[in-house]
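Hey, can you fold this one?
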Amino acid sequence: MPEVRAMIDATTFVIGVLIGAALFAAGVALGWRWARRSGGGPPREQVLDLLQDLASWTSEVSGDVSKYQQELAQLGEQIAHGQNLPPDQLQGLLTRMMRLNKDLQLRLHDAESKLESQTEQVEDYLRESMTDGLTGLHNRRALDAELDALYAEWERKQQPFSMALIDIDHFKRINDTYGHPAGDAVLQRVAQLLHDHLDAAHCVARYGGEEFAVLSLTSPQRTAQIIDALRAAVAQTSFSHEGESIPVTLSGGVAGVAAGDSIGDVVRRADEALYASKLGGRNRVHLHDGTICRLVTQVPVESSPSGASAGYEAAEKEQLQARIQERLRKIVLDESRRMKD
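Sure. Predicted structure:
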């Protein structure tokens, strides 16, 4: 009976798919829990509930599948040894097989619905684990993952990328003066401005505290220009909380990946450029060119009593850069060691 045997084989194949799907769902949940062990994300109780649900319905469906396999095996034996089955007996066997197939189809449909529900829960948890709760931007975990991926592309295909670190100037003063709720409101508003102005960026994340990070596939020079335009937009934006006006400015530092770099080297140079902006007076952006930090922001230079010449202005900027670099080397020493660890 080749047709009947084909039906049994097809049903067995579907059973295998079901078992594979169930095991895959359980594996995703277990792997996700393992990745989340270091902290953050949904409460431990939620994860345990999810795993218990997965284990429960997987065991239930597996039991039904085992029963169906036994039934089909019995049918197969009857067909294999019943060369001359009477038509009414053969009809009974086929009817029984159709009933089993229908029951299995219902179980598959129910399992598919449960699997879809569990998958949505896992996706929600993953999204939560990669998002900063206050600002809605990516969090440090998501940033690190994207940075690892970009660096892997750099090693594999020499696909360049740039990194920017952005800091809200005098944020502690904002908290001390206007209160922490005002500070949170400033963080949220700045995050919204980053989202609006950097929509083409590869990744925009809250790096920690009042610091943000941006990953871009554009050149370091172009990224620095974009960050400086963002800085100018924030400086011109009116911030207020409960009727009080709050002055807000940003400082930024940009660096690009270069031959021989580790991830820590890129982060360190962006950090050094950020410190250069802070030391230079804040509300400005510096670009680390691999050697020194260069000022990107066009900062007005006060004229001398006799009217400063272009050469005098250039000398002033050069002296300022030299002072920044000297102080910067001392300040970032600890930071450099930390990033290399």
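The longest helix spans residues 87-129. Let me know if you want another pass with a different chain boundary.
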